[in-house]
Amino acid sequence: VSWRSSLPPSERPGERRTAEMKKLYGKDAAMIQGMEAAMQLTFDRNCDKKQPKYWPVIPLNL
Amino acid sequence: SPRFIALCCSSSSSSDEEEQRLRSELRQRFLWTLSVMRDKLVQFDMHERVRVRARFGASDIDVLRFQVSDLETPLGVQREALLRCQDVLSCSFEL
Amino acid sequence: MLQWRDRSPQHWHEVVNHEVCVTNRDQQRFEGRVFTVDPVSASVVLVSVQENERPSVTVILGHAVTDVQILRRGTEETERQMKSVFLPDRAQILSA
């Protein structure tokens, strides 16, 4: 039995996100979710690889 | 206002579907814009009249941070950087 | 009055394809044709095509937008033109 099965369905983060996307985008939800996942993956991978630092160090818009 | 009441009380599924369709088209076009920006030289206008240029890498999906390379700051070039979208007012590039 | 960020997709969609003037918090103005408004960040994407210049794209971040005024209404022809400069290979995908 996987650890997932002990969680009530509504507590699974992936499902919650999918339900939100469905509400926002209707029948296009899966496609938009796929496009967003690809973009976030690029962002995460670039950050892992390049280790960018915030510029400026202190936010301008305080 | 009548418009507010119309928005709140229209619970019919057809108007939901219409809103979803419009939101989907707008979002797809924006995601497309971000993908076109990739590797482009982009000028960023930031708060306090700070203007910098950099090669665009990627945005996170919530549009909170931009990952860029070769950022030309007033104090020299920063090879890799993250810009906070809250600091950025606008950005522009040529196609 | 509703802030730009809190508007509905219908409201944002109403400015697509029209030539607009966007004003930001610093009272800077941007003119161009609206390609889209991101429903997540309310950011406005303007395309501007001028003779003898390469088409340029400006993204005004949603948090900075204070006003959007329609200057000239677009037509089917301007929509087609904008798509042809902006997404030559994908024109058919987004022509819903």
Would you give an account of this structure?
The complex is a heterotrimer of chains A (62), B (95) and C (96). Chain A has two helices and one strand. Chain A is mainly alpha-helical and 62 residues long. In chain A, α1 packs across α2. Chain A is elongated. Chain B is of the alpha+beta class and 95 residues long. Helices cover 35% and strands 42% of the residues of chain B. Chain B has helices at 2-9, 13-37, and strands spanning 41-46, 51-59, 65-73, 76-84, 88-94. Chain C has helices at 9-13, 76-86; strands at 19-24, 29-37, 44-48, 56-60, 65-72. Chain C has a five-stranded antiparallel sheet. In chain C, a hairpin with a 6-residue loop joins β2 and β3 (44-48). Chain C is globular, with a radius of gyration of 13 Å. The mean pLDDT of chain C is 90. At the B-C interface, α2 and β5 of B face α1, β2 and β4 of C.
Q: Helix/strand/pairing class of chain A, anyone?
A: mainly alpha
Q: N- to C-terminal separation of chain A? A: 49 Å
Strand numbers in spatial order across the main sheet of chain C: 4-3-2-1-5
Shape of chain C: globular
Which chains share the greatest interface?
B-C, 30 and 37 residues
Q: Tell me the structural class of chain C.
A: alpha+beta
Question: Spans of chain A with pLDDT under 50 lasting ≥5 residues?
Answer: none
CATH topology of chain C: SH3 type barrels
How many domains would you count in the coordinates of chain C?
1
Overall number of strands of chain C: 5
Give, in order, the helices and strands of chain C: HEEEEEH
Biggest sheet details of chain C: 5 strands, antiparallel
Give the oligomeric state of the chains in this entry, treating copies of one chain as homo and distinct chains as hetero.
heterotrimer
General shape of chain A: elongated
Q: At CATH's second level, what is the architecture of chain C?
A: Roll
Strand count, sense and barrel status of the largest sheet of chain A are: none
Q: What is the C-alpha radius of gyration of chain A, as a whole number of Å?
A: 17 Å
How many individual helices of chain A? 2
State the separation between the terminal residues of chain C, measured CA to CA: 32 Å
